[in-house]
Amino acid sequence: MYYLVPTSDTFVVYYDKLFVPASLVNQVIEVETLPEGEGVLKRNASGNFYRESVELEEAPPTPTIEEKILYETQYQTMLIETSMSF
User: Fold this and answer.
1) Around Cβ 4, how many Cβ atoms within 10 Å?
2) Are 13 and 4 a contacting pair, CB within 8 Å?
3) How many other C-beta atoms can be found within 10 angstroms of the C-beta atom of residue 71?
């Protein structure tokens, strides 16, 4: 059994009714199963639940130690050149 509490555009899922905050107990929707897959839990006009997939942005690659050293060297060089121009 799952206990769903509606939010503005999706639902918060609780696996135990005891964990639903007292102020939200009157809004709980009890369901036996949830849709398979990943994504945001939504409800269509006919009352059926579905998952809406979400496009996640890929995290930028982490620079290697060599790239970090290169960036730091370039930065230090720029600081030296800037201080010498005064």
Assistant:
1) 20
2) yes
3) 11
8 A C-beta contact, residue 50 and residue 13:
no
**Which of 29, 2, 25 lies closest to 14 in space, CA to CA?**
2
Is the pTM above the cut of 0.90?
Answer: no
**Collapsed DSSP state (helix, strand, coil) of residue 15:** coil
Q: In this predicted model, what pLDDT tens digit does every residue of 46-83 receive, in sequence order? A: 999 999 988 878 888 899 999 999 999 999 999 988 88
For 65, the token pair is 């130690």
Contact 12, 5 (CB under 8 A): yes
